[in-house]
Amino acid sequence: MNISPKVPIPTLERLATYLRYLIDLEASSIDTISSTEVEKQTGINAAQFRKDLSYFGEFGKPGVGYNVVELQSRIARILQIDRDQSVIVLGAGNLGSALVGYPGLGEQHFNIVGVFDQSPKKIGQKIFHIEISDIARLKEINASLQARIAIIAVPAHAAQSVAESAADAGVRALLNFAPIILKVAEGVVVRNVSFLQELAVMSYQLALDIRR
Amino acid sequence: MNISPKVPIPTLERLATYLRYLIDLEASSIDTISSTEVEKQTGINAAQFRKDLSYFGEFGKPGVGYNVVELQSRIARILQIDRDQSVIVLGAGNLGSALVGYPGLGEQHFNIVGVFDQSPKKIGQKIFHIEISDIARLKEINASLQARIAIIAVPAHAAQSVAESAADAGVRALLNFAPIILKVAEGVVVRNVSFLQELAVMSYQLALDIRR
DNA sequence: TAGATTGTTAATCGATTAACAATC
DNA sequence: TAGATTGTTAATCGATTAACAATC
Questions:
Q1: Is the CB of A22 under 7 A from strand D?
Q2: Which residues of A touch B199 (CB under 8 A)?
Q3: Per-residue pLDDT for A212 more than 70?
Q4: pLDDT tens-digit map of B17-39
Q5: Best interface-test mutation with B: which of A198, A211, A212 has the largest number of B CBs within 10 A?
Q6: Distance (Å, whole) CA A155 – CA B97
Q7: What residues of A are in contact with residue B185 (Cβ under 8 Å)?
Q8: In a 10 Å sphere around its CB, with 0-12 CB exposed, 13-18 middle and 19+ buried, how is residue A76 labelled?
């Protein structure tokens, strides 16, 4: 298959997992792996692994396996992690600030080029060498930053309006940390990071455990 | 159906969403809603909503709908969010500290009762009124804290070993922020918060958009 | 009562996994 | 060549959605 039709989201998520795993393998100087080995080490079914890759072409050699470095760079290219991408952070509270300082982002070529907040106390201050800008000037400032990805780290009550400003400022993808369902225009991608939800799920599972 | 067999994870995740939505409704002094109304406002299919609830019993009145306050409190009880739960945070870096200060946790009755780190510089210091303890003393200290939920906010290379210490200290549920697949013993629940993965997915979707 | 909406069964859809011919 | 492992098709599994009798 040459050009990917619709790739399932779970496949894309696993692709990111494979990539991390391959980077570890490379660090351990392993240069070839089989899908069976992937299953043993990640717990992801071998057929699943092969199927996931099949959406994007052929990556392995029958009887041999996959070249670690090659597979790594091809997955990185598929996910666009082989090139720098500009990201802005909306909200300079505890969470927003922590994200600005998170080294993993840069490692994956997500470069934070701007941080915005509404509070006059924060505007003009710096976090990790990036100056906080007035969120009211988002559109104007992003006209030059040209970030297409924004991380929303404002309180729930402000999130919807911030999302709209972002879309208006040319942002096409929102990573939303606020516990709220965002309504966005066609063509804007949203992914939610809902750790409260995750805690709630665990909370239920924990209780189940006790009941039996 | 009286006692729930196996409830799908997506159902549990949506339950947490419904709960947030119902709290908003209550604040707007709305006391009854129909599944159709839920669909309009959250985008979640009405049949899905009814099916999700059906795993736990009967909640509505045919021809009328659901009582907001009652549904809210019943979902809270299902998810165990109606009572306080002790949580410890492992790792007092930027992310860990931000989580300790995150007000949403307390609002959902997740009370942070301890913060742990390995760095001698941090041990003994306070973040938001909680003193940072030595992670080497986790088992000893959690013997009295009795937290069964831990949030892992340490760097990837330390996460596996921290997870093992936590399990050894009696923790039964791990909310993992480190970009790594944790291997845990039977009976320990893990949920991952992988915003790097979410960014990667968005990055792919963004590129797709351009190609067409 | 007539209209609205539930809870649940059945149909549909999509994702995961098993099986295997092709191939190194 | 014989053994190993891929890529892909087919079978299975599970979740979502539509349809509708029961009921307020």
A1: no
A2: 87, 105, 108, 110, 149, 175, 191
A3: no
A4: 999 999 999 999 999 999 999 99
A5: A198
A6: 17
A7: none
A8: buried
CB atoms within 10 A of CB A38: 23
Asked if B200 and A95 come within 8 Å (Cβ–Cβ), the reply is no
Of A101, A148, A193, the CB nearest to B195: A193
Instruction: Report the pLDDT value the prediction gives residue A208, as an integer from 0 to 100.
Output: 85
How many Å apart are CA B17 and CA B134, to the nearest integer? Answer: 36
* B38, closest nucleotide (Cα–C1'): C5
A16-26 confidence digits (pLDDT tens)? 999 999 999 99
The vertex-B102 CA angle with B153 and A181, nearest 5°, equals: 100
CATH 1.10.10.10 corresponds to the domain B9-78: yes
pLDDT in tens, A85-119: 999 999 999 999 999 999 999 999 999 999 999 99
Residue of B nearest to A83 (CA): B203
Give me the residue spans of the domains in chain A.
9-78, 85-196
- Give the sign of the dihedral formed by CA B21, CA B25, CA B26, CA B27: positive
Residues of B in contact with A16 (CB under 8 A): 194, 196-197, 200-201
In the predicted model, what is the mean pLDDT of residues A9-22? 97
Assess whether the region A9-78 and the region A85-196 belong to the same CATH fold.
Answer: no
Q: Going by DSSP bridges, is the β-strand pair A130-134/A110-117 parallel, antiparallel, or unpaired? A: parallel
With CB atoms and an 8 Å threshold, state whether A16 touches B200.
yes
Superfamily of domain A85-196: NAD(P)-binding Rossmann-like Domain (3.40.50.720)
> In this predicted structure, what is the pLDDT of residue B2?
34
Shortest CA to C1' contact from B47: nucleotide: D17
